[in-house]
């Protein structure tokens, strides 16, 4: 009868969050042994694995070699069981190819590419479960994997989405909010310098509200940065304890 | 799959070890490496399992969909296996790089499960001739540390064991059939996995054979025998692989070992799954956060 | 702060998919009590007061009330009573109400927003202490009940826990579910039924009447009369299988035994006849029907049948149904007929009505006769019958059990004495859902402060048109003047035409309280003696009204036109104008006709008049329809406010002149806004009616030998034009009146929501159309003004202006309000007609509009009035007998035969036999039929009839 009420009068979203609250983020570095760097992130029910290989020699055709910087090669892939309705193919469809390109652009901007000329860095992203904010989780996971691989970055890259419902910006929207037809802004930032490296908007949003919604996404990125940074610090201290480096 | 390159001396070392039933990592010829299984790892699937066998990491999700039965099996449901080799495992799998391996594995699974006694497809029938459940078993290969077939089959069996399908009530009146899905999350149907097979791979190393070959051992292997074995020791599928040749007597030997190992492997798996189930919801799901 | 829990839901969307949603449980949710020392301060809603004064004998300590879902849904009237305060609405309850009844949800939300009610929403589903997970084998209803108990129990503990103030506050759970109550009491909670609780309250006797009577024992013998309704699941299955159909039930106003169901995706209505087949459906319910076998199909009896309100002993329903069945219906007349098998959704609202005098004065059970004839009588229980009998009251239906002839309901409130004009006005406003309360403080605060002055800034921003001779032309007594015109000669020989519309959007800014109120009201409602303004009077009659000789803001459209009315250029601008004169239609007409006058205003009017004629001819050539509907004006006595004379509205050339330019302005604005906002322009369309609608007109015209071609608008206009009987000038008008009734409703819509091919306006033969010219009284025009202002860069856009879904929602409301305003206007005319004829009996000329089985529908042009002339009531064997010829559509008695369009002389009076329910009574004067017709009346205004007229009695 009545449609979904994305934001109740009491100020709660369908899943019980307030408009400015992120979903629960849990993550881990170094999930795999064989990859040079790997990370796993859960943002609510969106779960993403990322693996980084490189920098290494250019694979395949030599013509791809860039003489002044590293070649950032990405692949975005979704497990066939990751979505509500089963996907037929894990990658190769238009949406995944677009995602791949977006990731490539994002990390081209974040990796200190000139440090690794004539080589290649692979970033492979696998979405295990999708509940909105796939791109954001992919970026966040990749950042962690790059850090795990020890690749020089300008800064963390953190991504967060936001929407606009009942004159209120919502941050880190889940699938339900994403598919409700309300506008969506996706931003990836370098949180320390507050530079935006990626910005995308879907749906209709009035110009007057644009800055409020974008600010919400940027604020979300900052919050995510704090969480990721803590995880990285914990990880490093744990690893160093294991290796007996702290002395 | 990080490429493993071995010198002749290393190969000889492994060969001799196997001959003496003492492998490079200290195992006997019929021992598996450390194996971890966790089920219910992906909440949006009907059943899921993750298996980690040394470095081999496999995630399986099962999704049940309603569909029409295939014309030759009107009162049965279907199982579809789909293997995806993630580039996370190795850059070689990027794009379509992993497809050959994926097809190999899924074909083997089809063969192992294509046996009326090992998995009863009739339990997937909803309305004979019209509606049945199709189980999509999607296998995601996340890291390769050797012995993919065995690990995959274990993960598949665990995921199917974990699968619950919503109960469907069929109401018929005046020829119009209507399906009603129970809204009670506890009102579900489980699958009988008791006699389903596991795959056991035997690798011929020198004159002996080993189970669960590590990547290094796989390097020294010229021929492999891959077989599906049920808990009762029935062999549901058999396949020889590799460039080397095997003489019939050694095949018999290998089959004997495979059956023996398979029986206990199945038993161990079912025990472990039963134990996990007993812990129920109290158990904290860890997944990749461990 | 966040704890996370996932819960699993399976939905069916063609496929079965497992949906997982996160559900965060929080520890920062406040209990909402002002006395609470533990929770964070509340940040929304109305707090529960620290010392609640709910005085109940069942619970002597001060307490808060927690009702369950069914109590909220079914006892809405009790909940709304001002004495019920300090109620905790649980989120579980709110959600369930939302899913089960959207009007209920709306009412609940307004209670929650009311600061004097102290209703508080407690988000128990998000609170980690009160969230409950569904258990194995538990239905979702059981889970919700458990959640409600859990929350109640939490409140009980929370309000007594350490750190709280000394005053102990209790909570009381109200539930009529016996099982829930038992479990709650076991859990140590205070739980009562609403009935127990309300009866235990001190000084709340009036609340008892408000209780919904779900458990009222049935008046008559406990005999099941109606077939059982099918359960919803079975209905859905049946609909899927094509066995049943879903549709909305529309009761007939004229015959309580007949109704139609408009089935979704079906053109033709399905006819429903008889009590059993209607099976307790009430007007506007969404029902499931089953078609009857074709041999049982029936057709409307064309009998005008009112359930007599005097009769105490009613025929059993079976007898009435039997009577219908006995009639044989010829095959060719049969219509698809069905019966109701179940109710998908009740759309009950509150109904105005009067109490029927009961035989047992002291009894508490009474019958209420609703004002709306489509609604069945309602049985209520009240102790105030003696008091209510002279009153108009509001009642609500609670349920309709199988063993009761009438639905059961309860008393809600009284409106005032029957017959009081104010009371009657109130009734018709309520019945038509016209929001008519005074404007709230918040709305009035949005008005500009007086004295209102135009600043230099304003002059700079607007085009100064004060020097131009502008005038307005309106009906007499008009105070909300929203349009003015001018025409002047340009140096290049062309003419400049200006249409100046009150710039309401300057005063009503988007998002303000006044904007929301205006959007909600949608339109100004004109009753005969009262105007219910859409915007406060300061705007409607003063600051926005383009009165003469004052400077006013306007939104102007200026055209450059040749003398042949060809548009050379169009421009839109915001302006300041100073109207030189406010004419009535008649004054303007006189000016035009008076050759002696030759001032600039007169010249300008003549130009306009001439151009208007050209424009009109062009429209007619394009196929625009000239339709007619009888409109009348009352002359109201300035002291008694009673109507003293009635006359049909006069149409002059100047009416048409103003109309033409308004149309021109509307079309121009529609084009401009659509060009700029292809997706979110607010337009008005008029769909072409399905050909079947025209059948009565075609049939009627054919009886006079005219063919009406309805294939196209143009063809229809032409054939109407040519259907003229020289001897009977009123024939053509009648035909147009009948054609008007075949039309569809014109509706507002948002351009992005439907395909472009459907933008067409049939009646005006315009490709696209909108409303621009009356922003004082229509909200649609305000939207159009805002859009246009953005187009010309005169105003800023704002978010919801460009959201097509929001615009469509506004349009839907406007359509509804507009329709209701029309109905209310008509009802008001009716009311005044009754008052007017109360003391009069007159003879008037009338025309037969329809021939029915037992009556003639007669139109009296002088009063624009339509009435029913009963020929027989089908029961009493009164003489003389009329013979109804269904084929030819005639009634014959002896040598006299009545056809459609026949002229008759009618005696008009008011049947006062029932003081509560005045009826306009028509009696035949000419042609004379011995024993039936009455002698011609000599004087027009006679004394009120002293005794009941004879013919009045034959109706019983």
Automatic annotation (TrEMBL), chain A:
<dbReference type="InterPro" id="IPR050080">
    <property type="entry name" value="RNase_PH"/>
</dbReference>
<comment type="similarity">
    <text>Belongs to the RNase PH family.</text>
</comment>
<dbReference type="GO" id="GO:0006364">
    <property type="term" value="P:rRNA processing"/>
</dbReference>
<dbReference type="InterPro" id="IPR036345">
    <property type="entry name" value="ExoRNase_PH_dom2_sf"/>
</dbReference>
<keyword id="KW-0963">Cytoplasm</keyword>
<dbReference type="InterPro" id="IPR001247">
    <property type="entry name" value="ExoRNase_PH_dom1"/>
</dbReference>
<dbReference type="InterPro" id="IPR015847">
    <property type="entry name" value="ExoRNase_PH_dom2"/>
</dbReference>
<comment type="subunit">
    <text>Component of the RNA exosome core complex (Exo-9), composed of EXOSC1, EXOSC2, EXOSC3, EXOSC4, EXOSC5, EXOSC6, EXOSC7, EXOSC8 and EXOSC9; within the complex interacts with EXOSC2, EXOSC7 and EXOSC9. The catalytically inactive RNA exosome core complex (Exo-9) associates with the catalytic subunit EXOSC10/RRP6. Exo-9 may associate with DIS3 to form the nucleolar exosome complex, or DIS3L to form the cytoplasmic exosome complex.</text>
</comment>
<feature type="domain" description="Exoribonuclease phosphorolytic">
    <location>
        <begin position="155"/>
        <end position="220"/>
    </location>
</feature>
<dbReference type="Pfam" id="PF03725">
    <property type="entry name" value="RNase_PH_C"/>
</dbReference>
<keyword id="KW-0539">Nucleus</keyword>
<feature type="domain" description="Exoribonuclease phosphorolytic">
    <location>
        <begin position="21"/>
        <end position="151"/>
    </location>
</feature>
<keyword id="KW-0694">RNA-binding</keyword>
<dbReference type="InterPro" id="IPR027408">
    <property type="entry name" value="PNPase/RNase_PH_dom_sf"/>
</dbReference>
<protein>
    <recommendedName>
        <fullName>Exosome complex component RRP41</fullName>
    </recommendedName>
</protein>
From TrEMBL, chain B:
<dbReference type="GO" id="GO:0034476">
    <property type="term" value="P:U5 snRNA 3'-end processing"/>
</dbReference>
<keyword id="KW-0007">Acetylation</keyword>
<dbReference type="InterPro" id="IPR020568">
    <property type="entry name" value="Ribosomal_Su5_D2-typ_SF"/>
</dbReference>
<dbReference type="InterPro" id="IPR027408">
    <property type="entry name" value="PNPase/RNase_PH_dom_sf"/>
</dbReference>
<dbReference type="InterPro" id="IPR015847">
    <property type="entry name" value="ExoRNase_PH_dom2"/>
</dbReference>
<keyword id="KW-0271">Exosome</keyword>
<feature type="domain" description="Exoribonuclease phosphorolytic">
    <location>
        <begin position="32"/>
        <end position="166"/>
    </location>
</feature>
<dbReference type="GO" id="GO:0000467">
    <property type="term" value="P:exonucleolytic trimming to generate mature 3'-end of 5.8S rRNA from tricistronic rRNA transcript (SSU-rRNA, 5.8S rRNA, LSU-rRNA)"/>
</dbReference>
<protein>
    <recommendedName>
        <fullName>Exosome component 7</fullName>
    </recommendedName>
</protein>
<dbReference type="GO" id="GO:0034473">
    <property type="term" value="P:U1 snRNA 3'-end processing"/>
</dbReference>
<dbReference type="GO" id="GO:0034475">
    <property type="term" value="P:U4 snRNA 3'-end processing"/>
</dbReference>
<keyword id="KW-0698">rRNA processing</keyword>
<comment type="similarity">
    <text>Belongs to the RNase PH family.</text>
</comment>
<dbReference type="GO" id="GO:0000177">
    <property type="term" value="C:cytoplasmic exosome (RNase complex)"/>
</dbReference>
<dbReference type="InterPro" id="IPR036345">
    <property type="entry name" value="ExoRNase_PH_dom2_sf"/>
</dbReference>
UniProtKB/TrEMBL annotation, chain C:
<keyword id="KW-0698">rRNA processing</keyword>
<dbReference type="GO" id="GO:0004519">
    <property type="term" value="F:endonuclease activity"/>
</dbReference>
<dbReference type="InterPro" id="IPR033771">
    <property type="entry name" value="Rrp44_CSD1"/>
</dbReference>
<keyword id="KW-0007">Acetylation</keyword>
<keyword id="KW-0464">Manganese</keyword>
<dbReference type="Pfam" id="PF00773">
    <property type="entry name" value="RNB"/>
</dbReference>
<keyword id="KW-0378">Hydrolase</keyword>
<dbReference type="GO" id="GO:0003723">
    <property type="term" value="F:RNA binding"/>
</dbReference>
<keyword id="KW-0539">Nucleus</keyword>
<dbReference type="InterPro" id="IPR001900">
    <property type="entry name" value="RNase_II/R"/>
</dbReference>
<feature type="domain" description="RNB">
    <location>
        <begin position="462"/>
        <end position="794"/>
    </location>
</feature>
<dbReference type="Pfam" id="PF13638">
    <property type="entry name" value="PIN_4"/>
</dbReference>
<feature type="region of interest" description="Disordered">
    <location>
        <begin position="933"/>
        <end position="956"/>
    </location>
</feature>
<keyword id="KW-0597">Phosphoprotein</keyword>
<dbReference type="InterPro" id="IPR029060">
    <property type="entry name" value="PIN-like_dom_sf"/>
</dbReference>
